[in-house]
Amino acid sequence: MDDLFTYTEIINKKDYPKYESMEGVKESIKDIINLDDNYLIELKNPQVKLKTFLNNGSEIHNVNIAIASAVTAYARIHMSQFKNNNSFPNLYYSDTDSVYFDSPLPDSFIDSTILGKMKLEKNTRQTEFKKE
Questions:
Q1: Per-residue pLDDT tens for 15-38?
Q2: Residue-range definition of the domain harbouring residue 48
Q3: Which residue from 5, 31, 105, 117 puts its CA 20 to 30 A from 21's CA?
Q4: Residue 99: is it exposed, middle or buried by C-beta count within 10 angstroms (0-12/13-18/19+)?
Q5: Is 37 part of a structural domain of the chain?
């Protein structure tokens, strides 16, 4: 929920020294990726810094805790079918998007292309499935 948003620019390598010397650019650069004759440059958004300054140094976070809570609550409800069902293999661990069993789940619960189905991630002594 980091609201220090960034933006990207693609700058030709021959123009980069002039670009970097522009006011405020050098301090805003977070990352530079080499793309043949160009650079892909990730920069901090100067508007975030300006808004913080204009609000007497207090930060304004544009996040919604209710949505984040609803998503994780729904995930817990979805995963409860694996915890509260004795017809599944032995469950060793689960979180909001994965489960660890001692044997495979029934095929009806597995499909890596369908939202809400599980995807086989590992096939070891314990088998992990991830929700897509």
A1: 999 999 988 888 888 899 998 899
A2: 6-54
A3: 5
A4: buried
A5: yes
Identify which of 125, 85, 121 has the alpha carbon closest to the alpha carbon of residue 103: 125
C-beta atoms surrounding 57 within 10 Å: 7
The strand order across the sheet containing 127-131 reads: 91-94, 98-101, 127-131, 118-123
Does some domain include residue 21?
yes
For the full predicted model, state whether its pTM sits above 0.85.
Answer: no
Q: Which residue has the higher pLDDT, 76 or 88?
A: 76
pLDDT category, 10, cuts 50, 70, 90? very high
Whose structure tokens read 């060793």? 92
- Which residue shows structure tokens 């960034």? 6
User: What's the pLDDT score for residue 3?
Assistant: 59
Q: Is residue 60 part of a domain?
A: no
* Burial state string for 118-132 with b = 16 or more CB within 10 A and e = fewer than 16: bbeeeeeeebbbebe
